[in-house]
Design goal:
By secondary structure, the chain is α+β, with helices and mostly antiparallel strands. It contains 9 helices and 10 strands. The chain has a domain of about 230 residues. A hairpin with a 3-residue loop joins strand 8 and strand 9. The radius of gyration is 28 Å and the shape is globular.
Length: about 350
């Protein structure tokens, strides 16, 4: 199908594209655009992390440290997930019959949920080794994932894959091969746009309304889980848990959507009641630029009206020969505990 001509009737009957699936360099070495686009998505995610890491209470050195482990684990997890679940046309799990084929990653076969699981586990183990909270890197990873997934889905466009069932919807995509055209749901496009919208919304939300560590990892699971749950039902190339009846990615999407939603609502309720969270509490490193909802501080009671002014008290003390205490400078306030974020 990689040789098929792509068309979108909504742009006109004569609109068509036929991009190559790969390029050749160094005298014939083949590089697929899928890999190039995935790498581009990763670079954009890293660039974004470099711009917001201080707002999430992290240094760029720490981000790079976590990133190295997360990327390796994501590739391994995405490959293993695909190979363990994949069944061929006859219902045989071919990768399990030939385990050596799992290493032939250039033949294709990655699954995003395996990548997310692998990266999350790597961050957890690395955070334990660094004796840090895992919620900070998970928050940054969540926003970076939305960037990477939004861009990376266009690799499916070059490969002519991850499309849906036949349809006559207005935004249908045509695939023409050997003079025959079929019109299908461009599910790769649906997911790319869904992830891009999610990134924009969560980015601006995080600039003002971040209230605890792990909040945006949960919101990512809610947003992506809901969208993937719906879009996966339109795809014609799903990985099946039970062939013909239960899609594994749709099931995982539904579970993550529900579980993350429940945890998010629990945390929201606990914040209002000032109870411990199922996540991490904001600290002094990651509150820059965030609108905080503070409880009233324990300010000292106002002085009675007949109290002597501070300046008079100092003068009286000096006349009496006592040690005077200098009044605070203008604009200086007593230090106290801030309210809960």
């Amino acid at each position: 199908m990689r040789e098929a001509v792509i068309s979108f009737p909504m742009f006109g009957e004569n609109f068509s594209l036929n991009p190559p699936a790969s390029i050749h360099i160094f005298g014939g070495f083949e590089i697929y655009y899928y890999g190039i686009i995935i790498a581009l998505g990763l670079l954009l995610a890293v660039f974004y992390a470099s711009r917001v890491c201080t707002r999430f209470g992290m240094t760029m050195d720490a981000v790079y440290d976590y990133l190295i482990w997360a990327v390796i684990a994501a590739v391994v997890g995405a490959r293993l997930y695909y190979c363990l679940i994949y069944t061929d046309a006859s219902g045989v799990r071919s990768y399990l019959r030939d385990p050596a084929s799992i290493l032939r990653i250039r033949d294709g076969g990655l699954a995003i949920y395996g990548g997310v699981i692998g990266a999350a586990l790597a961050l957890l183990l690395r955070a334990r080794a660094r004796k840090e909270s895992v919620w900070k890197p998970l928050d940054i990873m969540a926003l970076g994932l939305l960037i990477g997934q939004s861009v990376g889905r266009w690799g499916n466009f070059f490969n002519r894959e991850a499309y849906g069932y036949e349809t006559d919807i207005f935004c249908r995509m045509g695939l023409t091969l050997y003079g025959s055209t079929v019109y299908v749901h461009p599910t790769f496009l649906y997911e790319s746009l869904w992830n891009a919208l999610g990134f924009v919304l969560l980015h601006f939300h995080s600039k003002k309304y971040r209230r605890y560590q792990g909040q945006y990892f949960l919101l990512y699971l809610i947003w992506y889980g809901f969208g993937r749950m719906l879009i996966e039902g339109l795809r014609s190339d799903s990985l099946w848990l039970v062939p013909g009846s239960l899609r594994i990615s749709q099931l995982l999407a539904a579970l993550t959507f529900v579980l993350a939603g429940v945890l998010y609502l629990i945390n929201r309720s606990r914040l209002e009641l000032h109870m411990p969270l199922i996540a991490g509490k904001l600290d002094s490193d990651d509150t820059d630029g965030i609108i905080m909802e503070s409880a009233p501080s324990d300010a000292s009671p106002e002085a009675p009206e007949d109290s002597a002014p501070a300046g008079d008290a100092v003068e009286e003390s000096e006349e009496a020969g006592g040690d005077a205490v200098a009044p605070p400078e203008a604009g200086e306030a007593p230090h106290g505990d801030g309210g809960e974020a």
